Amino acid sequence: MDKSTFENPKVVISGPMHGSLRHDSAHKHVTGTADYIDDIPEPAGLLHGALGLSDRAHAEILSIDLSQVAAYPGVVWVFTGKDVPGVNDTSSNGSHDEPLLAETLVQFHGQPIFAVIAETRDAARRAARLAKIDYRDLTHWHDIDGALANGGPLVITPMTLQRGEPETEMPNAAMRLKGQMRIGGQEHFYLEGHIAVAIPGEDDEVTVWSSTQHPSEIQHIVGHVLDIPSNAVTVNVRRMGGGFGGKETQGSQFAALAAIAAKKLGRAIKFRPDRDEDMSATGKRHDFLVDYEVGFNAEGRIHAVDATYAARCGFSSDLSGPVTDRALFHADSSYFYPHVHLNSKPLKTHTVSNTAFRGFGGPQGMLGAERIIEEIAYALGKDPLDIRKLNFYGQPGSGRTLTPYHQEVEGNIIARVVDELEDTSDYRARRNAIIGFNRDSRYIKKGIALTPVKFGISFTMTAFNQAGALVHIYQDGSIHLNHGGTEMGQGLYTKVAQVLADSFQVDIDRVKITATTTAKVPNTSATAASSGSDLNGMAAHDAARQIKERLVAFAAEKWEVAPSDIVFLPNRVRVGESEIPFPDFVKQAYFARVQLSAAGFYKTPKIHWDRKAGRGTPFYYFAYGAACTEVSIDTLTGEYLIDRTDILHDVGRSLNPAIDLGQVEGAFVQGLGWLTTEELWWDDKGRLRTHAPSTYKIPLASDRPKIFNVRLAEWSENAEATIGRSKAVGEPPFMLAISVLEALSMAVASVADYKVCPRLDAPATPERVLMAVERMKRV
């Protein structure tokens, strides 16, 4: 694959890179042979750790008696924050506001105070319940309303985006309306929960196996708490049983605790919390309260928007700053706002610190925008799709391409995506039929909605947009690949291996995919922000380029041909008029002392961001999509069914269509759960009561749409020079599920003959749907 691949979007790439190859571990997943951390053979002398958790939401710790804990049979060591050799802090942003173990103050129910190390996991967990801790309770609040009632304390400086003159132009709008929307949080609910194993080494060395999306972050935190340099810490990750953003920062505490105990006791340590403890002690998706005002004309075209996005962030900052920032970045959804003012409120609450989750604030921002569109549509008695299309960003030269953060929207294909889906889903005819059905049906009501997705791709922290890869070719022509990305089931390893196989034109089984490790590729960014394939694919390509250049120079000299006469063909190399099998060619290069190893590197071009000014180009490009969903609700019970969903999604020129289709389908269903069945609930003592499968309901296979049509926009190619002209697929399709909430809203609105916007909050549980129906009956 030569340089022209990235300079000319019309170049057709042969080989495996755009093929529908199976996930490299698919057969292992379904047969149960894939090794996760808890499957690794346990080292001799392994000990197990458990957390001692607070039972107060906000309190001073007056005294701690751990004598019964230490005396429990099998317990080897009990330690607190005072026993941390380095700094008792696991904050990911340098804010020093997240203690590994609380010492004098607890700030959420379930906060770790001590750790128990024992011969068995059961002994450690049972012993942890025997602590006697005296507290002095302090005022606490666990939700956004409570935070606002107590002065609105913030965990980090908020951000403001502004363009135009919203203060003076809002009053000039022909029509105005105000509203409020509540958007619930979400538990990651991985198949594999958090887990870490630490193995002590010589001197200050320690090796950690962690279920994490960010090995370098674990390396940094472990070094931080042990007061040792990063070069003494090796972090390994072969695969995770799900990540979704929750393993970007939240795995640090388990890895750090395991490492401390391992170095103290000179034995391997494993921390694997119970599901209840995992859910209580680790962060979730932020829930939001959105207050909005919009000015528009009689046609439905938006003139001005003013909105505040308040978020429940928890007791510390964690990633709440960038999460609430991204909510504002996507508060425009796919729509141009001539005059706009957006403000974030990252509120402190006495709950676990919320963290990254697929979409990283973008879904909440986008949902607020779609509510604004819905409000306008009901106020004017129009189809929401018509209001959407009227307000889409325009093409260059239209004067409607500038975002609230002053980035030009380029390569905009949202209108084409929506028009195509509108046609293939038969949206107009079905909507008319549904209106007729609702007119005649007394108890069952239907709704349909077609919603768009425009999602920016890149880390908004510019420095994170870099990646490295290490590639070796051995004498027999087999290839070893290592890069900084982590595999959490999304197929990243397979895609990057396809890139490498395509570069050398060899079969995919010639490429060995090895565990991500900080010992091979340093200073990696988290596998997050949908950037895994973009960054690591390009880094692997760069490594391959270096090796190929050496191989071409070697062949040109040895066979006395021009470099242009050397061509890599499937499993062979053409040199002039001769063809040499790839393994033979490599062996000859080895004997000629050609370096067959390279470290590749890539950094995303063009991007920059000034948070204080609220201006810049935070995204390299945008991914697009649209979904059309039809639902039926029972107005007597609030129960509902998803009858049909049609999706058309843009992944550019797909690196692997089979994997990308799976990502779109999975993201939609996960988004469906967020907006319908998954509800987090804290009681008045600040206790999370939805902390297990018995009380927290993720979607089942039976919850998927009865008819589920998913297509990729095969005509799309990324206008930017990404790997193979592909686009990211991890997060953007999550927001396709907004169509479900909008369809439920239409069904509810039919009870009042579509006269008012139902203002259905998320998650739209059957209880909320029923309450909204009852409100509509009173209109």
Explain this structure to me?
The protein is of the alpha+beta class and 779 residues long. Among the domains are: 237 residues, Aldehyde Oxidoreductase, domain 4 (2-Layer Sandwich); 138 residues, Aldehyde oxidase/xanthine dehydrogenase, molybdopterin binding domain (Aldehyde Oxidoreductase, domain 4). The chain is 28% helix and 24% strand. The strands form 7 sheets. The chain has an 8-stranded mixed β-sheet with strand order 3-5-1-12-9-10-11-20. Strand 13 and strand 14 form a beta hairpin. Helix 7 crosses helix 8, helix 10 runs parallel beside helix 11 and helix 15 packs parallel to helix 16. It is globular.
Give the overall shape: globular
Ranges where pLDDT stays below 50 over 5 or more residues in a row are: 1-15
Main sheet strand line-up? 3-5-1-12-9-10-11-20
Number of strands: 29
CATH topology description of the domain at 392-460 and 610-777? Aldehyde Oxidoreductase, domain 4
**Approximate helicity band:** 25-40%
Task: Return Rg in Å.
Answer: 27 Å
Average pLDDT metric: 96
Major β-sheet, in short? 8 strands, mixed
Q: From the 3D coordinates, which CATH architecture of the domain at 392-460 and 610-777 would you assign? A: 2-Layer Sandwich
Number of helices: 20
Fourth-level CATH superfamily of the domain at 392-460 and 610-777:
Aldehyde oxidase/xanthine dehydrogenase, molybdopterin binding domain
Give the termini separation.
64 Å
